[in-house]
Amino acid sequence: xxxxxxxxxxxxxxxxxxxxxxxxxxxxxxxxxxxxxxxxxxxxxxxxxxxxxxxxxxxxxxxxxxxxxxxxxxxxxxxxxxxxxxxxxxxxxxxxxxxxxxxxxxxxxxxxxxxxxx
Length: 118
Prior knowledge:
Order of helices and strands: HEHEEE
Number of strands: 4
Number of domains: 1
Structural class: alpha+beta
Strand content: 5-15%
Strand order of the largest sheet: 1-2
C-alpha cells in the first residue's frame, strides 16, 4: 500500500511578504503628508489662540492704563494678564503692541507667519 503524503505549504513565500511590505509602504507614503497637514494646522491654531490672548490682554491694559502701546513684558508673567505664553513651534511674538495694529507672529516652525487683526 502506498501512502501519499501531501506537503502543505507552511508560512509565506518571499513574494507574498514583499507584496505586503510594498502595500504598507504605499499606505505610509499616502498617510505621512496628511499627518503633516494636520500638524501644521494645529500649530497655526495654537499660535492664533496665543495672539488672541495677547490682543485681549493688550486691550485690557490699554483700558486700565489709558495708553495706546504696551510691551510684552507688561502683559505676560505670573502676576500679569497672561500667566504664560506656551510656544508650540519656536515662534516669535512681537515685543510690543499698539492699539489697533495687527499682530504678526513669525517663525512658526521656522517657515510660516500668522497675522491676527484685533
